[in-house]
C-alpha cells in the first residue's frame, strides 16, 4: 500500500512520534503533552492520502495502545476515526492557512481525546479535572504550524529529489 | 495507480470494518484478557527497543552523576550508608530472634509455618504512560520469571501488582489505580477490609467498614493475605481520614499508601508461596486470572477447591 518512497519517511516519523509520547516529562508538563501520533498521522494523510490511510492509522493506534498501557483498540479507534475524517476532507484542509488548519486540527484532536476518555470512563474512571480534556488538544493545535513546516520539509527532501 | 472513483466507498468500508474490529478488540481485551500474549509479543519486539532508547538518557545522567560527584560527597554518603546498614543489622538481629520464637510458638500450636518469600530488585524505566492511569514499567520481564499478578513492593510497603509482562520488561498497576483493590487488615486489631485505589497517588479508599468498627486515624493497614495474591503482613497504608456520614450504611475511610508510589525508583518483585495446606510451588494457576477487583473474590473459590482436594484424597 505504501509507495516505496513513503516507506522511507512515514514509519520513522510515526515511530519518533510514539517515542515522544513515552518521553518522561515532569508532572506539571504531562497535562500539556500533545498527541504527537495523531498530529503526525493527520499530516501524512493530508500530504499523501493515496499512500497513508486508515489502516496505517489503526496500526499505529494499536502500537500507541501497547505503549500507553491502555486497552487494545482504545487509541486505535480514535485514530481511525480522525484518519477517516481527514481522508474525506483533505482537499479542503490543504488549502487552508496554517492558522485555520490549527483550528481544524484542534477539533480533530478533541474528537480523539474525547473518544479515548470516553472509553476510559466506561472501563474505569474518567479524569475529573476539566483541563485534561482540552489542554493536550490545545497544545497540539499550537504546535501544528511548526510541525507542519518541519514534516513538509522532511517530505520534500525524501519525495521530491532523488536520493542516491 | 488506483482509479479515482474506487476509493470513496472502499475507505468508508475499511473505516467501518476497522472500527468494528477495534471495538471487538477492546471487549476481548477488557472482559476476557485473551490478548496478553499478543500484547507481550508487540511489547518485547517493537516497543521495548524504543523504551530502552528513551530510558538511555536518564541512565546516562544518573551514571554521569555518579562518576562526576566529588570524593567528599561519596565519602559522606558511604559513611551514612554504613551507619544505616549497621542500624538495620541491629534490628535484623532482633527480628531473627523474634522469627525463631514465632516458629517455636507456631510449632507448639502445630500451626502452618510461615512460608518464605523470594525477592528480586527491579528498576523503574523512566517512561510515561497514560497520565490517567496509575501504572509503572519495570526492567524485569518473562526472562526473570515475572508472572501476571505478581506483587511488587518498595522499601516502605506494597506498591502494586504486575498486569502485563514482556520479555525484558513488565507493566505494573499501582494500588492507587481506580480499578485496583487489595485485601487488607488493621494491624492493631485485625479488622479486615479492602483498599480500593482512587486514581490519586496519595489516597486509598477502604469500603464496607460499618460505623461502629474500631478503626482510628493513624492505624496501619497491612495486607491480609486473603485472596492469595499478596503475601500477608506487608504494610499498605495509614488511615488519614474517617468520616461517618449519618445517613449512610458504611463509614468513609481514606488511607494514605505508605509505599512511595510516585517517588521510588527501585522496587522489589516478590515470589511467595500461597499459604495453603497443599501448596503448589509455582503460583501459576491464580496468576492467569485478571488483576484488581477480582482478587478478593478468589479466596472462597480457592478454599473450595482445597476442600474438594482433601475430600478426594480422603
Mean of all residue-level pLDDT scores of chain B: 79
Biggest β-sheet strands, sense, barrel of chain A: none
Terminal Cα span of chain A: 23 Å
What's the CATH architecture name of the domain at 89-107 and 119-273 in chain B?
Beta Barrel
DSSP summary, beta strand count of chain B: 12
Largest sheet of chain B: 6 strands, antiparallel
Number of strand elements of chain A: 0
Rg value of chain A: 16 Å
Helix content percent band of chain B? 25-40%
Which spans of chain A of ≥5 residues are poorly predicted at pLDDT below 50? none
Order of helices and strands of chain B: HHHEEEEEEEEEEEEHH
Global geometry of chain A: globular
- CA-atom Rg of chain B in angstroms: 24 Å
Taken from the alpha-carbon principal axes, the silhouette of chain B is globular
Q: How confident is the prediction overall: mean pLDDT of chain A?
A: 87
Structure class of chain B = alpha+beta
CATH fold field value of chain A: Arp2/3 complex 21 kDa subunit ARPC3
| Named CATH topology of the domain at 89-107 and 119-273 in chain B | Thrombin, subunit H
Largest interface: A-B, 45 and 45 residues
Strand-pairing-aware structural class of chain A: mainly alpha
Molecular structure report:
The complex is a heterodimer of chains A (164) and B (314). Helix content of chain A is 76%, strand content 0%. Chain A has a single domain, classed as Orthogonal Bundle (Arp2/3 complex 21 kDa subunit ARPC3), CATH 1.10.1760. Chain A is mostly helical and 164 residues long. Chain A is built from eight helices and no strands. Chain A starts with a helix and ends in a 5-residue tail after the last helix. Chain B is of the alpha+beta class. In chain B, the strands form two sheets. A six-stranded antiparallel beta sheet of chain B has the order 1-12-3-4-5-2. Chain B has a six-stranded antiparallel barrel with strand order 6-7-8-11-10-9. The C terminus of chain B is likely disordered. Chains A and B meet through helix 2, helix 5, helix 6 and helix 7 of A and helix 1 and helix 2 of B.
